[in-house]
Amino acid sequence: MTGFWNDIFFGSSPVSMIVMDLTVAASTFLIYLIYQARYNKLNITKYIICLFLVGFSLAFPLYLYDTHENKK
């Protein structure tokens, strides 16, 4: 595991760019969730758990699914 983190952040330029991109996206989503919890009284517990245990790839689609309004 000692070389794993070194390779993720400093292994190559494309890998580090992808990691930084996902970090910015997840951080922005976390700030948005806090905003929604404060002003729209949204319960964000399950999104926070998904974000930190699985990742952005589960938390964001779950949020979109839960907040989607059926317009039929």
List keywords for this structure.
single chain, 72 residues, mainly alpha
Q: Work out the helix count.
A: 4
User: How many domains in all?
Assistant: 1
- Beta-strand content estimate: under 5%
| Strand element count | 0
Mean pLDDT: 85
Tell me the overall shape: elongated
* Rg (CA only): 15 Å
| Secondary-structure element string | HHHH
- Largest sheet composition: none
Q: Give helix % range.
A: over 70%
The computed structural class is: mainly alpha
- Identify low-pLDDT runs: none
Q: Calculate the terminal CA-CA distance, rounded to whole Å.
A: 51 Å
Explain this structure.
There is one protein chain. The chain has 72 residues and is mostly helical. It has one domain (2-67). 79% of the residues lie in helices and 0% in strands. The chain is built from 4 helices and no strands. It has helices at residues 2-10, 13-39, 45-53, 56-67. The longest helix has 27 residues, at 13-39. It starts with a helix and ends in a 5-residue tail after the last helix.
Please provide a brief summary of the model.
The chain is an all-alpha fold and 72 residues long.
